[in-house]
Every structure is written in structure tokens, then in C-alpha cells.
Amino acid sequence: MITAKNITKTFGRVKALNDISVSFTKGECIALLGPNGCGKTTLIKSILGMVVPDKGNIEFDGRPISEQWQYRSNIGYMPQIGRYPENMTIANVIDMMKDIRKDTTVHLDEELIVSFGLQELMDKKMHTLSGGTRQKVSACLAFLFSPDVLILDEPTAGLDPVSSEQLKKKIVLEKEKGKLILITSHVLSELDELITEVFYMQDGRLLFHKKLLELIQDTGEERLVKAIAKIMTA
Ligand SMILES: Nc1ncnc2c1ncn2[C@@H]1O[C@H](COP(=O)(O)OP(=O)(O)OP(=O)(O)O)[C@@H](O)[C@H]1O
């Protein structure tokens, strides 16, 4: 569904992505892991067309993304830090997104709005929201247009435990519908029940890309955090 071939991206002297090749297929939930600054967000932004690689190419459903822009309507993106027009209310922001999409045929998935109880906060302006509530708005927008692909950058950061569980439940539901989900998180314990593959990066390079079962077999560890620790200290 998404294929990247020999992607390289340099910012000044920093090689954020160094010859990355990857194929992500439908129905998988992939953890993009690696230390701070290893290039995870740059890879995500390259897939979204928000960063243009210096070298290499990326295809979505077999077509180069440089030749199409419509593919983006198939991706729900939850950024690490959501930026919104601060004077707008939550309702205004959601309506604005619906207006921009203009597609009246798409199924609006408002499940998360309901489970987070955001209906009661719709009249609150964005600049008055707590960090966690802002994060909930970002999550709701990522799922709203029922996209085939979900890209979630640190989705549970700042969420309280109850909301975090609600979001994880929703991610599992969408995975079971056969969607492709890419997720970054530094809280590995949260990923055990969600993911099917691990894509581990370091210094802009791909260190390994393995199925979770393969990782468990290779390391003899059931928990992701222990399996990764074993590989990194081997
Ligand atoms: N727009 C930019 N201009 C300059 N340098 C950048 C830019 N975006 C990213 N970088 C650099 O590229 C490298 C990779 O950054 P990136 O945000 O992709 O890392 P990350 O793996 O997502 O990190 P984190 O886990 O902290 O979110 C870092 O050294 C970062 O400082």
C-alpha cells in the first residue's frame, strides 16, 4: 500500500533519513521506533508529502505520490503537536475540516468524539484547551473521515489513562477492519496489544523491520520493551 525506495533527506548537516526503503501493507499496525531525532517524524512527513526527500521515491497504492495529491484523503494523520487556529472553537475546527474535504459521501466516524465526551466541550476555543484535550481533538480529526491509513505520531502522549485506553481500543477496532496503521511511541508497554510489526530506526537508518512474532521468536521475550532492549544490548 505504501512503498518507499531509497529515501534520503538532509537538513543542513543532519541526515534525517539515510537510504530508507520500506513496504507497509494493509491490515498491519506498525510501530515506528527509535531514539529521539532518529528520523521517525521525517519519514511520516515524507509519506504525507509534507517533507520532500532529496533522493528516492514513495508510492501509494502503486503510484508515485509526487504525481498525485488525492492519496492524502486516504490518510488520517495525528501529529505530535496539533496546531490549530487558536480563536476557533472545537466545533469550528471540525466544521472547517468537513468543509475542506467537501466529500459528502464519506462516512463520518464520530465514535472517538463520543467516547472522549468532546460534545460537551464543542464551544470551547482552542487556546483555552488543556494539552490532553487538544490531543483528543487531533485524534478525533485523524479518525473522522474513515481513512484507509492512520498515521499516529505519539498518539497517547498527554492523555490520561482512561482516554489513552479509549484511543487504543479505537486503534484495535480500525486495525481489525483491515486498515494500515503507523504509530510512533516511546511508551513501548502501550504497543504490545496493538502492533503487528516493528520498524526500528537509528541515526536516519533502518536498523530492522520485523513482524512482532518474529521479534518474539528471535529474542525469546514476549514483551516488546524487553525484546527491543535485548536486541539493542546484544
Ligand atoms: N525542518 C527541519 N529543519 C532542520 N532539522 C530538522 C527538521 N526536521 C527534522 N530535523 C532534524 O532531523 C532529525 C530527525 O528528526 P525527526 O523529527 O524526524 O526525529 P524523530 O525520530 O521523530 O524524533 P522524536 O522521537 O524526538 O520525535 C533531527 O536531528 C531533527 O533535528
Automatic annotation (TrEMBL):
Pfam families per UniProt: ABC_tran
Superkingdom of the organism of origin: Bacteria
Keyword Lyase among UniProt keywords: no
Molecular function GO labels: ATP binding; ATP hydrolysis activity
Keyword terms: ATP-binding, Nucleotide-binding, Transport
Domain spans labelled ABC transporter: 2-228
Name of this protein: Cu-processing system ATP-binding protein
